[in-house]
Structures are given as C-alpha cells and as structure tokens.
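User: Before I run my own analysis I want an independent prediction to cross-check against. Here's the chain; please return only the structure tokens and, at the end, one sentence I can use as a sanity check.
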Amino acid sequence: MRLAAFVVMLMPSVALAQGALPPQMMQAVKSDPSAWLQDVAALIGSAGQDGAVTADQLAVAVAVKRAAARVAAMEPLMAADLDGDGMVTRDEVTGAGHGLAAGAQAALQADFAAADGNGDGKVSKAELVALGDAAALSAMGPARLAEVKVLMGFDADGDGRVTLDEVKAGLQALVS
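Assistant: Structure tokens:
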C-alpha cells in the first residue's frame, strides 16, 4: 500500500494539533492527494465499521499486518522442520527442498542462512521467532507507526472515530 499513514494509534496527533503532518506523510499527500485519500478510504473500509475507524480497530489492523508478515517469514522454515522438534537443520532444509523449483529451493536456503544467526547449521526456536519478529517490524515498524498516529488526529468531532470526510476536511484545512 502506498499509504504512508497505514494504521494506528490511540491518541490525537500532536503534529496535527500543531497544524502539520510528518514530512513523509505531507510529501505523500502533496505528491498524489487522491491516491493518498483512496488509501485512507480503503483503510477505513477494511479496518473500520460504518464508514469510520477507531484507534482500537487500527491497532488490530496493525497487529494483523505484522502477524501476516511474521507467518510469511516463518512458514517456509517451519514447513522444513521435518521431524517436528521445533528446530530446523540444514539437512531438513535440503530434504524439504526436494521437489521444489530451483528458485524456491534457493529461496528456502537463503531463508535458512538468514535465520541461522549463530551459524551453527540449525535454526532454533529463538532464531525462528527472531526472524518472524524482524519481518513483522519490517512490515510495520516504529517509524511507520509514528506517521500513522496522525490518522486519529483527524477526529474533528472527538467521538473516537475517524471518517473519510473528517480526513478530507482536515487535509483541506492543512493545505489551504
């Protein structure tokens, strides 16, 4: 998604209260306001209810995005845990790679090498969790979350819900 302000937070933004958006968000808005608003509308539609979104709903959307990234990173190696002991060895990865296309085999080997933090030829449960956590933060890290906090700052009527009309009105006030 192009939306720099993808999701979250639980409090109105100080930046919005001061009449400014974070620089990256303002750049996204100025470069293509209609695309930015489309992304906000999609977010409100998918995470919210009845044409509005709350901070709690945004928090769930962030958690879901992070969980999906975590699963996507961990699943190939978990599938290679052929003996089900929670640890993945190089031999298991090689065995699990049989029957895969060459590109998929190479990707699995690369995933294994990236996850084997101590280079012992095994991916432990802790290393697997670390791989998933890194993927989750990459999908929705602290810098992106900081930008996202601004979305709840568009709650003009203070009802704890942000509508697309409130975002449009807030942007109009900021850029005019």
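Sanity check: The first strand starts at residue 52 and ends at 54.
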